[in-house]
Amino acid sequence: MTTAAAYGTAGGGAGLAKSTVTVTRRALLRYVRTPQLIVLATVQMSLFFLIYRYMFGGAIHIDGMSYVDYLVPGFIATGVLFMGIGTATAMAEDLEQGFVDRLRSLPIPRSSVLIARATADTTILAWSTAFTAAVAFAVGFRLHGSAVDGLAAFGLVVLFGFAFEWVFITLGLFAGNAQAAQGMGMIVFPFAFISSAYVPVSSMPSWLQAFAEHQPLTYMVDAVRALTLGPQAQALLGHPSSYYVTRSLLWALAIIAVSLPIAVWRYRRG
User: Fold this and answer.
1) Mean pLDDT in the chain?
2) Alpha-carbon gap, residue 108 to 16, rounded angstroms
3) Are 52 and 141 in contact (CB under 8 A)?
4) Span 78-128, pLDDT tens digits
5) How far is CA 260 from CA 39, 102, 104, 137, 201, in A?
6) Quick one: CA dihedral 171, 175, 179, 184, positive or negative?
7) If you ran DSSP here, which 8-state letter would residue 187 be given?
8) 248 contacts 161 by C-beta, under 8 angstroms
9) How confident is the model at residue 2 (pLDDT cuts 50, 70, 90)?
10) Comparing C-alpha atoms, which of 192, 259, 253 is closest to residue 221?
């Protein structure tokens, strides 16, 4: 069977949807055939959460709530960055090993390759997030909003993950090799720490607060926090959940709107 036939492109080419599904399936099969990738991603995120839970839990005090309730929404929302480094590395490996060159030779939409990578890795991110949330409940986190709000918060995290996947895909395309991609992926980590994820912004130096209050991850964290913690969060944050959800969605759309065209442009130039 030829490569074109394997991807269903013989005799004219495949559409965007069909090509995306096929390449997504290939990316997911890679995880299935290399289960240590899934296990490593899942366990690593949970271990980092436990470190933060027990290392800082006794040292940081939040008015009106336990630190574990404050931490979990922030950690899970920013956990998309930990997972994203794997996307940058995988994208760079596909380039380095020639897989992307083979796809370029097929009569399929160029964007389908990148959409498939983002979709597959977002699926793994959703699984890892769900596992970490289960661990969080086991060590004391409690949902203070409704079950519907909790599901909405989970959906937001997955959407944030999808948005940031495009950032990491772009980094992987520019990196050239897996080692460089891993290093470049680390540049986003300051955004996780200079946010409301782990400590209140009000506890930071005044010169840092302006940035921390208005950068995208803070809005995303506070949106998840407002949905999962109910009235406690509104008293702490000062605004209803709709305020943070709206702004976080706008940031997610902006990240996709900027990163996706750059990634497609870089892929086509490759």
Assistant:
1) 86
2) 7
3) no
4) 988 888 888 898 888 888 887 777 777 777 777 788 998 899 999 989 999
5) 28, 21, 18, 35, 30
6) negative
7) G
8) no
9) very low
10) 192
